[in-house]
Each structure stands twice: as C-alpha cells, then as structure tokens.
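for the recovery benchmark. tokens below, seq after
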C-alpha cells in the first residue's frame, strides 16, 4: 500500500498517501526470503520422509509471510490459503493467516475475493489478537469496491475495540477517505483535526496534515488550509511532506495576493541544498505566476524557463507550458493553446492554476457554441476540483451547454447544484434557479417547472428577472393543460408589467390558449386586443396573420383573404408574409377559384424558392391535384417537395403520397421500390410508414412478385406488431403464400399459419376472421384435404356468420359467408352429394345476401337435373 491514491469527493480531488499497513518490503537482490523458506521445506531432514503437521504448517506460514514481504502475492496466496484451511479450528492462527491472506489478495487487486474471505471468518477469530487486522482489511476491500458506507460501518469504534492494534493509524486514515467519498466533509475535517491532536508524534502525522490542508484548500477554505500548512512547514525536524506543504502554502498566498510573502515561502524550495528538481521547478512556476500577476511578463517567462530547465519528469515539464497555453487561448489561437493546456491539466490536475485554466477552457468552448466540447471540459473540471465558486461556475456553464444540446434533465440537475453553491442573494444564484425551471420546462416537466418558478418568486421577490419568471410560471400552467389558470396568470402579468415586452407576449398567449381550447371567437377577440393595444408591437404581424387563419377556420374566407393580403402588403419581409401568401392560395381554393389558387401557389414557389413555406405550398398543390385524381401532376408536386426540401416536416407525408399517386397510376414498381422504399429508409419513424409498407407489399403483389411482397410484410410484422393494420398484413402475407402454393404445396401450410394468426387475434374484426377462416378452407381444399376443408367452410365461416347475425353482432362478412358456402357446396357437388349441396345453397338464400338469387337459381338447376332425389 505504499503507492499514492487519488480520492474523489464532493469538494476536492487530493492525494492521500496510504501507509505501510501491508508491511510490504522491496525485493532482495539475493535469494528472496520466500524462496529460501520454500527450499527449506523441500530439503527437510533426510532422516524423516515427511515433516510433522505442525512443522508443515509453520513452513507454509513462513513461506507465505516471506512471499508477502517480497510482493510475490500469488505465491503468498497459495501458501496462506493452504495454511488457513488447516487451522480453521484454531481462532488465533486462523485470524493471523486470514489477515496475511487478505494482504496477498490485496496485492493481487482482488477486493471482492478479500470480502468473501473476511466475511466468512468465525466470530471467535475476531476476538483474537488479529481482530483489528481483520476489520481493517475488510474495510479496505469495501473501500476499494466503493462500498464506502459498509467500510465506515466496519471501522466504527475501531479505536475502542482495537486500541493497540498495529492497523490503528491506517484505519483512522481510511475512515477519513471514506468520509470524503461519501460527501461528509465536515466529519472528515473533524477526523483530520482529531488525528492531528491524538497522533501528533506518529509516523503519519505529517501526511495527515498535508492531506488535511489539501482538503481544506480544495473545499475553498484556504485560510484554514494555510494554518494547517504553516504548522506542517514548521515541524522540526522537517519531514518530507513539509516541502509539499510549503509549495501549497505559497499557492494560497498567491491566491490571496500576498505576493511578497509567497516569494518568501517559495524561495527556500529553490534554495534548498539537497536537489529536489521537480519541486524546485514547480516553485519557479509559482514565482512566474506572481510575476505575471504583477505584470512582469518578461520575468514570468524567465522564471518559467528556469523551472523547465530543472524539471526532470515529463509531467512537470508539461506543466511549464501552461503560461504559453493561456496566452495562446487569450489571443484566439484556441487549438494550439488548448492542446498545451490539456497536456498541463492532465499532468498536474491538483494544481490550482490547472483548475482555473480548466474552467477558462470550458467557458471558451461554451461561448463559441461548441457545446459538446464544453460539456466535456466542464465535467472534467467537476471531476477534478472542488472549490464552491469554481464548481458553481462549472455547473452553471455545463447546464447551459446541456440545455443547448437538448439534454434537459441533466441540465436541470446541473443548474440546481450551481444554485446551491452560488452565494446567497447573488445575481448568479437568481439566474441559476431560473434556469433550473427553464430546464424542467424544456423537458416537459411542467409541474416541477411551475414549482421552481414559484420558489424563485418567493426567494427573489425584487429580482429584475421577476417578469420573466411570472411568464414562465404561466406558461408552465398552460403546458400542463391548466388553461383557465394560465390565462388568468398571463392577464395578471400583462396588467402588472404593461411597459414590459413580456406583457404583449402574455396577451398573445391568452389568444393562443383560447385557440387551443377551440374557442375561436374568444381567440379572435384576443388577437384583436393585442393589435389594438400594441399597434407598433413586435407581435402585430403575427396576430394579423393568426386572425386571418381563425377567420378561415370560422368560414369567413373573404375576411381571411383580406388579412393575408394586408400581411403581405405591410410586412413583406417577415415570415408571416410568406405564410400569408401560401394561405391566400387556400382562400382562393375555398372560394372555388382553383385557377387563382394555383396561380398564387406557383407565383410563391417562383418568388420565394427558399422560403420555409415552399414545402407547404408544394404539398397543397399536390393534395389539390390528387383529390381531383390528376395523379401524375400530384406525384410531380410531391416529388419536388421531397427533392428540394428533404428536411421539411412534410417530407415523409410527401413521399407517401407520391407513392400513392404512382400506385394509382399502376406504376407499381416506382411506388414500391421508389417512393415507399425511400420513405422507409429516410423516415424510419414516420407515422405514414405503416400504410406505406402495406401499399409497398400490395404493389409487389400487383407485379406478381409474391416472394418480395412477403419480405415486405415480414418487415412490417417485425417493425409494427401492434399496428391497427397488422391483421390485414397477415392476411396479405397468407394470400401471397397461397398463390405461391401452385408451384410449392408447402406454401399452403405457411398460408394456413398466417391466416390462423388473424383467427387468433384479439383485435381482428369478425369479418377479417371470417375471411381468414374461409381462406384456410381454400388452402385445405388445394391440399386435397376436402373433408377438413368442408368442415372449415361450414363450421368456421357459414355457421359462425349466421350465429353472429342471430346474436345481433354488427359485421360486414357477407362476402366471405357467401364464398365459404359456395366453396362448401362445390365440394358436395363434386362428390355428387346433391342434397347436401342444396342445403348449403339454401343457407345463402335464407341469409338474404346479394348472392341469394344466384344460390336459388343453382338450387333450382340441381333439383331439375336430379329430380328423383327430391321426391
């Protein structure tokens, strides 16, 4: 456990050095103790063939300990596992062996195996002299698997239970790490303080002070950190940690702008007689910061150069490039500067300067609309640093980036955390809370957004953002379908903030909500009020256009046309003028002036080819042509829409109707392989795709490409199993299989399977079930199973249809009743069972269906030709 370990917690990232609890030693340059012990076992006294049990156990324990000291963890584990198995009934030796085995597993980085081992130790072993070791290593394993709460529970009252245990100091330090990782900073700080008071003379006292100071610094409590670092620097004789503390103390003094005192603290690092190159280099870097802060840029560069000359490790050399990186970013050379800064940050993430640069880098990406990169940089900051003010800025910036990326749920959480960290009554805190509500609103969590805006108005009643919060509060109610309450809130806002631009917008929302409720007359009056109260307002052209739309819907086509013409004349450069011109064509068409409508639409396409409304115009033209069965012209308009405006919300509809138009022209291949295939490829989630797939299959059927049609129907079944068309698709698939049965009789079985899906469907209409049952009978008949076919026709179609009719079930299955009866009668006729055939035909006659007359004629003919059978 001699290595450094990075510990993340709510407020900071620090270096906590774990002590030598594992008792690890370095490899001997000569024969290792483990190998020597193993050889001793193998070369036992020749006078005895085998050592005694106790000798063997002692040898295994000795070998395990030696291997553990030499860091030969796998060998140690094997020896100690065998030892532990043999001493299960001896609690004292079991505890000792288990602790050693846990250390070996820890060396192998197997914390889960440690937990399994230590949790199965009998209670008696925990009462032995090694009980503290068992608890410490179990807590260590929990910690390394991030089960911090369980680790803390295991370490509870450790000092009381094991006051003299060799692991006591390590257990106390481990407890602090667990507290930090469970965001219990106050308890962790109290534990640091207690450790310092109780273990001041211990080997780990200096490490505790260094860690304590770093945590305080990361938590933004630099004054307290400064006190701790000063204490560590003043310890005599000076421990190694004191040099690190001196560096951090210098950084704190720089932050506090105590530049000369910082120089005095840092200079001993540079002047120390024993070379400590990397630390001396970092001291030069810190001095360069002071020079830069004092405007001494040349001196800063010189100090950086000295530091770079001293630096020995790559990480420290990279750190020296930070000043250049910052300057490059400031001058707009973002790519090169960012690369240098990232290299520096990655090398020394715990440097305060790196923290500031990380935030600067994230903010630069946010301000240049590179939101994905901004999120990454902010997240990197949050994972690395813990100062409240820095985290608040990072969370707020990250929230903005996430909101712009459409990741609203994450944005709301980020803004909420930022709000909690910003200073009370600050403008930043107000903005953060308002953005929490906005993020909830954008994520359609309207009740939560409403509660957040209410909370904002309660906490910040005098805020300059009050009107904006009131508007959003009303909007939340509107989106939550609390229309009456929303209208009242918008009207109150308009009355209270008459001179605010939001007042006009609030009245517009009142009109829109009336329209949403279907109260078109009320909406019309509300739009007219906005136009009257704000004749020069930003919403006037919108309201005029909206009034025209409402007049059109209310049947006042002439009034609507007048409004649209006024919009075009008075506001020709607005988006509303474009919409008005498109809608003028709809007015002419409603007035039965089709020629004028087409003329208007064609002029629009020519005049405004890049307008967002061109797609709507082209769709209207295609729709008009389709409805008058001019399918070729309709297809042309829909085609132009999909070609020129592939990203339009109408593009998928246009592809579908182009396919329908081609289908209606009997251009089946163009419909199937062109339009419908394009719709499936380009708009796989379009609501038109279900009908398109069905028509695509039908087109292939028309082309007699039944296998291809089956593939399309299979894709439909896979993609839309719950579609209202699913039963019809199964029927069509069965029809294709039935047709293919002419050349492959196995296809009839496949068709029966498809038809039975419809028969067994819980949602299929009765007429579809009758159709499927009738077609099953046809399959059976084609397979020469005429007895089964006859029963199928009569029992599943003819009799069932008549029973349903008698029950009063509304259905439209006369066609399949008639066919099934005719097929059944045909079988009887083929067998010369004339009486049975006549009885079946009589069912048709008595059912009073369209085929009743022809059925009676058939009865008469049979009776005439076989008169002896009927007398």
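predicted aa per position
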């Amino acid at each position: 456990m001699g290595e450094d370990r990075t510990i993340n917690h709510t407020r900071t990232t620090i270096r906590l050095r774990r002590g030598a609890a594992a008792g690890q030693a370095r490899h001997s340059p000569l024969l290792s103790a483990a190998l020597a012990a193993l050889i001793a076992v193998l070369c036992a006294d020749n006078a005895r063939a085998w050592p005694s049990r106790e000798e063997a156990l002692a040898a295994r324990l000795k070998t395990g300990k030696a291997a553990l000291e030499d860091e030969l963890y796998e060998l140690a584990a094997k020896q100690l596992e065998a030892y532990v198995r043999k001493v299960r009934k001896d609690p004292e030796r079991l505890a000792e062996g288990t602790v050693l085995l846990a250390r070996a597993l820890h060396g192998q980085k197997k914390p889960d195996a440690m937990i399994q081992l230590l949790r199965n130790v009998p209670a008696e072993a925990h009462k032995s002299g090694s009980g503290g070791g068992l608890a410490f290593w179990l807590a260590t394993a929990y910690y390394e698997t991030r089960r911090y709460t369980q680790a803390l529970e295991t370490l509870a009252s450790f000092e009381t239970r094991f006051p003299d245990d060799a692991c006591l100091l390590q257990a106390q330090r481990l407890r602090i790490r667990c507290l930090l990782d469970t965001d219990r900073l106050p308890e962790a700080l109290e534990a640091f303080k207690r450790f310092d008071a109780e273990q001041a003379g211990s080997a780990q006292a200096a490490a505790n002070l260094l860690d304590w100071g770093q945590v305080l610094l990361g938590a933004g409590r630099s004054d307290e950190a400064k006190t701790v670092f000063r204490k560590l620097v003043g310890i005599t004789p000076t421990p190694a940690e004191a040099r690190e503390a001196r560096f951090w103390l210098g950084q704190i003094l720089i932050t506090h702008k105590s530049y000369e005192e910082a120089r005095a603290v840092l200079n001993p690092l540079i002047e120390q007689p024993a070379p400590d190159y990397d630390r001396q280099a970092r001291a030069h870097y810190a001095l360069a910061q002071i020079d830069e802060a004092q405007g001494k840029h040349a001196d800063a560069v010189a100090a950086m150069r000295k530091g770079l000359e001293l630096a020995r490790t790559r990480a420290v050399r990279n750190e020296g490039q930070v000043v250049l990186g910052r300057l490059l970013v400031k001058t707009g050379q973002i790519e090169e500067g960012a690369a240098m800064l990232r290299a520096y940050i990655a090398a020394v993430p715990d440097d305060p300067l790196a923290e500031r640069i990380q935030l600067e880098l994230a903010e630069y990406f946010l301000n240049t609309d590179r939101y994905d990169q901004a999120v990454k940089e902010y997240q990197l900051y949050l994972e690395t640093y813990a100062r409240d003010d820095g985290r608040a800025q990072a969370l707020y910036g990250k929230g903005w980036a996430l909101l712009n990326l459409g990741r609203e749920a994450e944005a709301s959480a980020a803004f909420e955390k930022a709000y909690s960290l910003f200073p009370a009554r600050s403008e930043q805190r107000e903005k953060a809370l308002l953005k929490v509500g906005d993020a909830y609103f954008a994520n359609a969590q309207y009740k939560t957004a409403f509660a957040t805006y209410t909370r904002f108005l309660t906490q910040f009643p005098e805020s300059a953002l009050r009107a904006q919060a009131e508007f959003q509060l009303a909007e939340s109610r509107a989106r939550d379908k609390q229309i009456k309450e929303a209208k009242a809130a918008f009207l109150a806002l308009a009355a209270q903030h008459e001179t605010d631009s939001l007042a006009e917008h609030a009245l517009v929302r009142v009109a829109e909500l009336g329209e949403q409720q279907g109260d078109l007359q009320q909406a019309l009056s509300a739009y007219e009020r906005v136009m009257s109260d704000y004749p020069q307002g930003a919403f006037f052209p919108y309201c005029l256009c909206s009034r025209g739309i409402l007049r059109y819907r209310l049947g006042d086509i002439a009034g609507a046309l007048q409004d649209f013409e006024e919009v075009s004349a008075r506001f020709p450069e607005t988006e509303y003028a474009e919409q008005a011109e498109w809608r003028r064509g709809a007015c002419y068409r409603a007035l039965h002036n089709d020629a004028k409508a087409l003329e208007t639409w064609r002029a629009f396409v020519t005049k405004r080819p890049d307008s967002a409304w061109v797609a709507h115009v082209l769709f209207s033209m295609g729709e008009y042509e389709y409805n008058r069965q001019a399918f070729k012209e309709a297809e042309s308009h829909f085609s132009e829409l999909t070609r020129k405006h592939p990203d339009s919300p109408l593009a998928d509809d246009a592809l579908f109707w182009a396919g329908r138009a081609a289908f209606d022209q009997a251009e089946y291949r163009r419909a199937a392989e062109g339009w419908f295939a394009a719709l499936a490829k380009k708009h796989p989630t379009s609501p038109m795709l279900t009908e398109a797939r069905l028509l695509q299959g039908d087109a292939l059927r028309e082309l007699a490409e039944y296998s291809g049609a089956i593939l399309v129907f299979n894709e439909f079944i896979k993609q839309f199993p719950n579609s209202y068309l699913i039963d019809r698709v199964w029927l069509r698939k069965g029809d294709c299989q039935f047709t293919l049965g002419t050349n492959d009789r196995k296809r009839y079985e496949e068709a029966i399977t498809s038809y039975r899906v419809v028969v067994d469907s819980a949602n299929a209409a009765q007429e579809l079930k009758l159709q499927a049952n009738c077609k099953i009978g046809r399959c059976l008949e084609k397979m020469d199973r005429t007895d089964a076919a006859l029963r199928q026709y009569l029992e599943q179609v003819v009799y069932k249809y008549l029973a349903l009719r008698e029950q009063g079930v509304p259905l439209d299955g006369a066609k399949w009743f008639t066919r099934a009866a005719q097929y059944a009668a045909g079988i009887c006729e083929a067998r010369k069972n004339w009486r049975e055939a006549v009885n079946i035909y009589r069912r048709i006659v008595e059912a009073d269906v369209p085929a009743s007359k022809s059925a009676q004629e058939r009865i008469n003919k049979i009776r005439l030709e076989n008169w002896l059978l009927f007398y």
